[in-house]
Amino acid sequence: MTQNDTIITKVERLEESLKETLHKVEVIKRKLETKLLSAESRERLENELYEIKKVLGRNEKELQSLRKENAKSFMITVCLVFVCFLFYGIYLMIFGNV
């Protein structure tokens, strides 16, 4: 991700990454349900599943923080719009005929 990416772009990329990771988890779980795996293969898949779940947890936390940041940006925008309308209303009351 570059410095110029918006929060929305980052959220979209992270959500896509989460979808891919969840798909990988499902595939590995289905493979682990197979009884034809050797102990070595099963252990390798379990380790891979563990690592993927760690990445998944990290990405979910990052997604939550980006959504909080997005909510803050939205609230600032709403406040600025409200202040602009307030000043416009005061201006009309003082200088204009409503």
From TrEMBL:
<dbReference type="Pfam" id="PF15188">
    <property type="entry name" value="CCDC-167"/>
</dbReference>
<dbReference type="GO" id="GO:0016020">
    <property type="term" value="C:membrane"/>
</dbReference>
<keyword id="KW-0175">Coiled coil</keyword>
<feature type="transmembrane region" description="Helical">
    <location>
        <begin position="74"/>
        <end position="94"/>
    </location>
</feature>
<feature type="coiled-coil region">
    <location>
        <begin position="11"/>
        <end position="62"/>
    </location>
</feature>
<keyword id="KW-0812">Transmembrane</keyword>
<protein>
    <recommendedName>
        <fullName>Coiled-coil domain-containing protein 167</fullName>
    </recommendedName>
</protein>
<keyword id="KW-0472">Membrane</keyword>
<dbReference type="InterPro" id="IPR028194">
    <property type="entry name" value="CC167"/>
</dbReference>
<keyword id="KW-1133">Transmembrane helix</keyword>
